Amino acid sequence: MSYRPKDIYRGRRKFRVPLTILLFVLAFLLVGGVTMFFVLQRFMVYDANGATLQLPFSGRGEAAGSQAEPAPSPTYEPVPVQVVWEDPDFDDVDMDGWKSLEPVRGWFYPLSTVTNATDLASAVSFIEQNNYNFVIFEMKSRSGQLGWASANSVAIDYSTGTQTDIASAIATLHDDGKTVAAQISCFADGLMVQRNWTCALQRATGGLYQDSSGNYWVDPYNHTIRSYLEGLALELADMGFDEIILADLYHPVSEDGFSYSVQLQTAPDPVVAVCQMGRRVAEALAGSDVKVSARIDTASLRNDLGSQTGQDIGIFWRLFSRLYCATGTDSLASDRELAVAEMEHGDEEERFVPILGIAPENSDSYILSY
Known about the structure:
Elements: H1 16-40, E1 44-47, E2 50-53, E3 105-109, H2 111-114, H3 117-129, E4 134-140, H4 153-157, H5 166-175, E5 179-185, H6 190-195, E6 202-203, H7 223-239, E7 243-247, E8 258-259, H8 270-284, E9 291-296, H9 298-302, H10 306-309, H11 313-319, E10 323-326, H12 332-340, H13 348-351, E11 352-356, E12 366-368
Parallel strand pairs: 3-4, 3-12, 4-5, 5-7, 7-9, 9-10, 10-11, 11-12
Antiparallel strand pairs: 1-2, 6-8
Helix pairs in contact: 3-5, 7-8
């Protein structure tokens, strides 16, 4: 028996029509969105403030239907200016750092002691319990690492700070009547070279300069470096340190010559570069109770290389309160004689401080370091 189509039951498809309509709407929106995206690209305007959409009916830009009147060209009047480049004159500089000094007897502790809480506590206890009136903490090593969590913007940008509670150590030593000094490496700075190589001192033949010990050095003329060092010194003074000692305030010597990160208007002069940096820190702390001193290089001192290393001892005596010198008991007398030959003011026992491995028999002022 055959069936006719009208005799067959077919279920009603309730969602077919709405689903079809929905798909058509979605397809229309997708095609319309893509089309509008490409059409509106011609009305996008990019400037220093970002991207803006300027439609023809908004009345802005060329697409508004009218050309904007061009801004009048600025007019300038010529002003006669003569730029004269002169080297700084240090002849009449005297920061009076030689006043109000006394002999110092103490210890030097490297950055590794400062950044280790147990070692730092032991060092503070040792100074308190012995007949020492002075302590030096290395707060910036040649590696570029700092011994405190610096708020300096450069230190933050290049992550050179550490979490160390040095303030408590300073307060404890002050309560016991001790004087506390901070030593910072100036132009030897491995972290800064590695993380911001544009500040690096480079060989004239190419490549970053490294000394015989593998230390990287920064450009002593670089403005970022100078501001960075000045800022660190001011920050250490605010933390309570009584004296800031500038180590590696020194221009390396190389037969290859050097290439600098800044354009110099005059011939490179290590004395100008080095002494200008020292003067900047000394003047920044002038008028405060914080002393500014420097650590001199024995090789430069003994071989009369001041014009090449920038450590002009005569200028150093006028800029700084004390000069520290790493020497030995057998060479102490000769090094002292060379150093104080150009000292014009103050007492040599108070201003010249040898750094030794053992306490000398004929000196009231010294720093011990192992």
